[in-house]
Automatic annotation (TrEMBL):
Keywords: ATP-binding, Ligase, Nucleotide-binding, Protein biosynthesis, Transferase
Species of the source: Halovulum marinum
Catalysed reaction equations from the record: L-aspartyl-tRNA(Asn) + L-glutamine + ATP + H2O = L-asparaginyl-tRNA(Asn) + L-glutamate + ADP + phosphate + 2 H(+); L-glutamyl-tRNA(Gln) + L-glutamine + ATP + H2O = L-glutaminyl-tRNA(Gln) + L-glutamate + ADP + phosphate + H(+)
GO terms assigned for molecular function: ATP binding; glutaminyl-tRNA synthase (glutamine-hydrolyzing) activity; transferase activity
Domain of life: Bacteria
Keyword Calcium assigned: no
Family to which this protein belongs: Belongs to the GatC family.
Protein name as catalogued: Aspartyl/glutamyl-tRNA(Asn/Gln) amidotransferase subunit C
Keyword Lipid biosynthesis in record: no
Length: 95
């Protein structure tokens, strides 16, 4: 497919890109090459080819989705400036 300067100007306008007049001809050539390459790719037979997410086969490591309290209360309360009876202690703000 061949793109002319007017089409390149229109594409630049639609993309909201300011293109100088002298740059329209190279832009038209580049767009034509891109469309030719896309046409070439569309001719490749991909029947029976499964989609892939990576070039190497991988499986995600998974764990059981179990709800727990984390069993880390003591570790967390070590960071508190004041902790009492298993809770953060804060100054009284309401009389």
């Amino acid at each position: 497919m061949s793109i002319d300067k007017d089409t390149a100007r229109r594409v630049a306008h639609l993309a909201r890109i300011e293109v100088a007049e002298e740059a329209l001809e190279p832009l038209a050539r580049d767009l034509s090459r891109i469309l030719d390459f896309m046409d070439e790719l569309s001719q490749v037979d991909t029947d029976g080819v499964e989609p892939m997410t990576s070039v190497t086969p991988m499986e995600l490591k998974r764990r059981d989705d179990v709800i727990t309290d984390g069993n880390r209360q003591d570790d967390i309360l070590k960071n508190a400036p004041d902790a009492r009876e298993g809770f953060f202690a804060v100054p009284k703000v309401v009389e």
